[in-house]
Write a structure and sequence with these properties.
- The complex is a heterodimer of chains A (about 140) and B (about 350).
- Chain A is α+β, with helices and mostly antiparallel strands and about 140 residues long.
- Chain A is built from three helices and three strands, in the order E-H-H-H-E-E.
- In chain A, about 35% of the residues are buried.
- Chain B is mainly alpha-helical and about 350 residues long.
- Chain B has two domains: about 210 residues; about 50 residues, no CATH class.
- Chain B is about 50% helix and about 10% strand.
- A three-stranded antiparallel sheet of chain B has the order 3-8-7, with no helix packed on it. A three-stranded antiparallel sheet of chain B has the order 4-5-6.
- In chain B, a hairpin with a 4-residue loop joins strand 9 and strand 10.
- The longest helix of chain B has about 30 residues.
- Classes of the chains: A alpha+beta (about 140), B mainly alpha (about 350).
C-alpha cells in the first residue's frame, strides 16, 4: 500500500449525546437508553456496559461514606488548608473515570470509529460520542 | 505562548494568580467586608487584649486570634473559589441543545427547520416534576437547582445567591465555606462585643470611675462595641437562616422563589432533601468536595488539539482495518456482501465498520 494514500472522510462526524439522568437526584448519572444512532457501530451491550460503569464510578466518587466524611471534617478543622497538601477523594475518582474512558476508547471504541468525550470536558452535562464516518472507499 | 482558558473565559469574572483565583467583576464591597473585619479585630488586639489578658485570662486574645484566622480562611475560600460554574456549551453540543436536545435531530441540517424547539424540559427528580429551563447565554438546559447569575453571567450549579460581601456567587462548590464563614463570623462578632463591653465595665468599676470616664479612657472599645453591635444582628440572622436552609437542604434562591411552598393548594415537596436534618447538614458540610469544571489553567486550544489527534488516530485505524480486510479477502476468497466485508476472524477485534449510509 502506498504510504501517501489517505482515507477520505466523506462527511463530518456525527455526534450522539448521552444526557443526564436526574430521577434519583442531582448526583451525576447518565441515561443508559441505547441511542439508535449507534446501531451497527457499537453493540447495545457494549454501550450499556460502558455507561453503567461510568455511572458506578461517579456514584463511588460522590458516595457519602466514612472516607468522604473524615476528609470533610479534617479539612474543615484545618480551615481547608489541608486541600493544599492532599488530593481529595473526589478528584482522585475523577482521574479514575478519565482513565477508564481512555481505556474504553483505546480498546473498544476507537477501532470502531467512535470516540467518547469525557463528561468532565462538557461540564458533566452529557457524555458526547463522536461517530466518525467509515471511509467510503470501494473495497 | 497561546492563551489559557481563563484569559478567554466568557463570563463576567475577574481572575488573579494566573487563573487560580476567580471572583465577580465587582469586588468593592468585598474590600469593605475585609476592612470592617480586620479593622475591628486590629482595634481589639491593640487596645483591649493587653488589659483583658492581664485581668481576665491570657486565652482571651488567643481565642480571638484563632476565630479571626478561621473566619479569614473561610472567607477567602468562599471569595476565591469557583462557586460551581457550568462551562458554556460550545460547538455541536450548543447546536444540539439549541435544537431541543434530541439525538434524532440531524445537526447538519440548516437552522430554518428549527423555528420553535422546546425551551423547557420536564424531568422527574425523586418523583417530583422539575422544569429545566433553556439558558440562551450558556446554550444548555440548566440542570435542576442551577440558575444563571446575571452579575457574573454564568450558570451556577446549586445556585444559592450572588453575595457582594464576599465578591462571588455562592453555589455548589463554595456553599459550605460560606456557611462556615457566617457561623465563625457570628461567634467572632459576639466575642468581640462581649469583651469590649467587659473592658469598659471593668474599667468603670476599677477606680470608682463612672461609665462615661471609662468610655473616654478606652474609645477604641466603644467603636468596636458599636460596630459589633450593629453587625451581630445581621450575621446572627443570616447564620440562623442558613442553618435552617442547610437543615432542610434548600437554597436561598429556592426559598425566595418559594419553590417548595404550597402553591394553588398543591404541595410541591423538595425532592433533594433526605428528610433528616442531620443528614442534610453532614451532606452539605462534609460531602464530597467537587472539582471545578472550568479547567481555567488549561491551554485554550488543548481540547481542539486532542480531538484532532483522536481523529487522525481513528482514521489511521480504520484505514488499516480496511487494508486488513482487503488482504484477508484475497486469502480467504470471501466476497464483500452489500458493502459489508465478510469476516472469518474474531468478530470482536476484526470486524470493520460498515460504511454509514449517506
Amino acid at each position: 500500500m502506498a504510504a501517501n494514500e489517505t482515507t477520505e472522510v466523506a462527511t463530518a462526524p456525527k455526534k450522539v449525546f448521552v444526557q443526564r439522568d436526574y430521577t434519583h437526584g442531582t448526583e451525576c448519572k447518565y441515561e443508559t437508553t441505547y441511542p439508535t444512532q449507534l446501531e451497527g457501530v457499537i453493540a447495545r451491550e457494549t454501550f450499556t456496559d460502558t455507561v453503567n460503569k461510568i455511572n458506578e464510578l461517579f456514584e463511588r466518587a460522590e458516595e457519602l461514606g466514612c472516607p468522604t466524611y473524615t476528609e470533610g471534617c479534617l479539612s474543615c478543622m484545618t480551615g481547608y488548608l489541608l486541600y493544599f497538601c492532599i488530593e481529595t477523594k473526589y478528584s482522585k475518582e475523577m482521574k479514575q473515570i478519565s482513565l477508564f474512558i481512555q481505556r474504553q476508547n483505546d480498546e473498544i471504541y476507537h477501532p470502531r470509529g467512535v470516540h467518547i468525550v469525557e463528561p468532565m470536558l462538557r461540564g458533566l452535562r452529557c457524555i458526547e460520542l463522536v461517530v466518525y464516518p467509515a471511509p467510503n472507499k470501494p473495497i | 505562548m497561546s492563551k489559557k482558558r481563563w484569559q478567554v473565559f466568557p463570563g463576567k469574572n475577574r481572575f488573579f494568580c494566573g487563573g487560580r483565583i476567580i471572583m465577580a467583576k465587582q469586588i468593592n464591597v468585598f474590600f469593605v467586608t475585609l476592612i470592617l473585619l480586620l479593622g475591628v479585630c486590629v482595634l481589639f488586639f491593640v487596645f483591649d487584649c493587653e488589659y483583658l489578658s492581664q485581668k481576665v485570662h491570657w486565652l482571651v486574645p488567643v481565642i480571638a486570634g484563632v476565630l479571626l484566622a478561621f473566619t479569614l480562611l473561610f472567607l477567602f475560600r468562599t471569595s476565591f473559589s469557583d462557586p460551581g460554574i457550568l462551562p458554556r456549551a460550545t460547538g455541536d453540543e450548543a447546536l444540539f441543545n439549541d435544537r431541543g436536545a434530541d439525538n434524532n435531530v440531524d445537526l447538519t441540517q440548516s437552522s430554518a427547520n428549527f423555528r420553535n424547539p422546546p425551551r423547557t424540559k420536564d424531568v422527574q427528580v425523586n418523583g417530583e416534576t422539575v422544569k429545566l429551563k433553556y439558558c440562551f447565554t450558556c446554550k444548555i438546559f440548566r440542570p435542576p437547582r442551577a440558575s444563571h447569575c446575571s452579575m457574573c453571567d454564568n450558570c451556577i450549579e446549586r445556585f444559592d445567591h450572588h453575595c457582594p460581601w464576599v465578591g462571588n456567587c455562592v453555589g455548589k462548590r463554595n456553599y459550605r465555606y460560606f456557611y462556615l464563614m457566617i457561623v465563625t463570623i457570628t461567634i467572632l462578632c459576639i466575642y468581640v462585643l462581649a469583651f469590649s463591653i467587659a473592658h469598659i465595665v471593668m474599667l468603670s468599676r476599677e477606680k470608682e470611675n463612672t461609665l462615661i470616664t471609662a468610655m473616654s479612657e478606652t474609645p477604641a472599645s466603644v467603636i468596636e462595641a458599636l460596630i459589633a453591635f450593629f453587625a451581630v444582628w445581621s450575621v446572627l440572622g443570616l447564620a440562623g437562616f442558613h442553618s435552617y436552609l442547610a437543615g432542610t437542604n434548600q437554597t436561598t434562591n429556592e426559598e425566595i422563589k418559594g419553590s417548595w411552598a404550597q402553591r394553588h393548594g398543591e404541595v410541591v415537596r423538595n425532592p433533594y432533601t433526605t428528610n433528616n436534618c442531620c443528614g442534610n447538614f453532614t451532606k452539605i458540610l462534609c460531602g464530597p468536595s467537587y472539582t471545578s469544571l472550568l479547567r481555567l489553567r488549561e491551554d485554550k486550544n488543548k481540547e481542539k488539539r486532542d480531538m484532532e489527534e483522536v481523529k487522525k488516530k481513528i482514521e489511521k485505524l480504520m484505514f488499516e482495518q480496511q487494508n486488513n480486510s482487503n488482504s484477508q479477502g484475497h486469502w480467504t476468497n470471501s466476497q464483500p456482501h452489500n458493502g459489508i466485508p465478510v469476516d472469518h476472524t474474531d468478530l470482536q477485534t476484526q470486524l470493520p465498520r460498515t460504511p454509514t449510509p449517506s
